[in-house]
Amino acid sequence: MTMQLERDSKLLRIFIGELDKLHNRPLYEALVYAAKKQGVAGATVLRGILAYGASSRIHSAKLLDLSFDLPIIVEIVDTSEKIEEYLETANQMIEDAGCGALITVEKAEVIHYKTKKH
Fold first, then answer.
1. Where are the beta strands (DSSP E) in the chain?
2. Could you tell me which residues are beta bridge partners of residue 116?
3. CB of 13 within 8 A of CB of 90?
4. CB 7 within 8 A of CB 109
5. Helix (H, G, I), strand (E, B), or coil: what is residue 40?
């Protein structure tokens, strides 16, 4: 079964911390597995090297820095309907984790979405 994506899709970004947990599991991992379970087209986790957010505290990957709670971005692209459906799940998971987060949604123009030929 090959999943298709509409050219006019949405990009969901969830900004959290690397140390955020949900039931003793990294929150970013729980978010990705929840997306897969809901049939979302795909998800990618990116690890930042320098950031700050609502707390104004700098998070850095410098070797001598004490902050190892680096920024994590979970990116998901799918149809508007799928993103809206998944947002309910993601919001609940973030609430249950009790962590800070930033969630954004923007238009995404899907040009190519195909699996490798085997």
1. 8-17, 21-22, 25-26, 43-47, 50-51, 59-60, 71-78, 102-109
2. none
3. no
4. yes
5. coil
pLDDT tens digit sequence for 15-62: 999 999 999 999 999 999 999 999 999 999 999 887 777 776 666 666
Q: List the end-to-end C-alpha distance of the chain, in Å, as a whole number.
A: 14
Token pair belonging to 78: 């799918």
Tally helices (H) and strands (E) across the chain.
2, 8
Query: What amino acid occupies position 118?
Result: H
Spatial separation of the C-alpha atoms in residues 74 and 53, rounded to whole Å: 16
- Residues 58-90 pLDDT 10s: 666 665 555 567 899 999 999 999 999 999 999
pTM: 0.86
